[in-house]
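Two entries, shown back to back:
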Amino acid sequence: MRLYDVLNGLLHSGNADVYVTGSNSKLLSRDISTEFRGRGDAVHVHPFSFREFLDFSGMDVRDAYDEYAAFGGMPYLLSLKDDDAKFQYLDSLFEDIYFKNLESRYGIRLPGVLRELTSCLCSAVGSLISAARIARTVSSSRGRRTDPETISAYLGYLTDSFLFSLADRYDVKGRRYFDYPSKYYCADVGLRNVRLGLRQQEPTHIMENIIYNELLLRGFAVDVGNLEVLEPGPEGKRSQKIFGSGLYCPPGEPEVLHSVRSEHG
């Protein structure tokens, strides 16, 4: 008898609430809706937000932010006092949890590509990327052609495992999503930083990732896009400038966030 059959059988008990936890390699949120036929709820447990980290750490707010921006919000880190121990713990999560689970669940044929893709996403946090562009980058670095379909599949695996979140372009429809750039954010900035060997400590991109995660924790659905602004130019003529790319809550939501990094004009 399968685990799902046993759990579904317990649904007939009137005096039991059943909570199931497990490895990403065996159970994903989409499996819950399929296997439990709409009679189960998925509870997503995130790393600490900055506010939670600040409350539990007891640090000064500036020191807490510096620590959070470097090592993230995995709760176990608060019991580790040494930076080397924190680095080793986060690094082991990639190899012993994420990569092994992904390879086991999906039968990954190109584990090297999966690891390189993960590093690429960590490096590109806050930047617009596409599957086709990443495929060209990976192919160039490995000297072996990697097709966009494989990259797209691996991107799906990484988001299904809750290691990354995808923020789509709000103004793109249909098939153009495949080739059009979007943004991927790491579920925990500490994992991102350790994957890069604590290099590429880009404060603005790390802050953007932290804000994105905070919005998700507050229940927002977040897209990315460009903010078009008309500004007065010479001789009274108006010129269009595009600022972005930023984080956008859906229409009707009270908060709209955008960066002020000029891309055009």
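entry 2 starts here
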Amino acid sequence: MLHKTQGIVLSTFPYSDTYSVTQLYTRDFGRVSYLLPKARGRKTKFSPSLFFPLTVLYLEVEHMPLRDLQRIKEATRQFPLYDVNTHMTKISLAFFLSEFLSRLLQESDHNGLLFDYLKNSVETLEAADRGVANFHLAFMLGLTRFLGIRPNMDDPGKNSYFDLLNGEFTRHMPLHSHYLNREQSAFLLQLHRMHYGNMHLFRLSRSQRNMIVDYLLEYYRLHICDFPPLKSLKILRGLA
């Protein structure tokens, strides 16, 4: 059965001599894997550039119940990604965020508000000319709200600890190892105010950004089942 929907490219990888598989997060079906015919000379229905990470597409797709790999009938860009395809920092961010989302989003996820957040984030990354190095931090902080794992940022006062496992501040040191010390917790309290509109105001060093990413990823691993390490993190660290 044919359906019209929108999708955001997460990843594309070889499948056979004639097909690749592309994973998309779609507005109507959540994360879906689609068979994609490989380009052969000039006769190709889908240009490989259509499936660059984070590309937002209008789609006509075939969906069959119980089939692991669905098929794409038509695909066109909603808007071009000039900067995301050419700006080195944005390219690095695109690969990191696409892998992050590929590992994070489940096939059963179906959330129109989440799709809108992701689409708006791609548009923001393309247009951003200030604070780009902080974009992934604002993205990861904002995403928690749409996944239902937003931490409780009510501060109990000075000298508190942030409990990563329970997602809240506490006056007493947690009895487990998943928490931020007092200095880190005070820093988090300031950082949680970051969003796309003010991310350029946060003057962070490379080491600070890398530390923040590490703790954000730990938070996600504690609250999302089977969330593995990310291969693209090494590239991101070098360009942060």
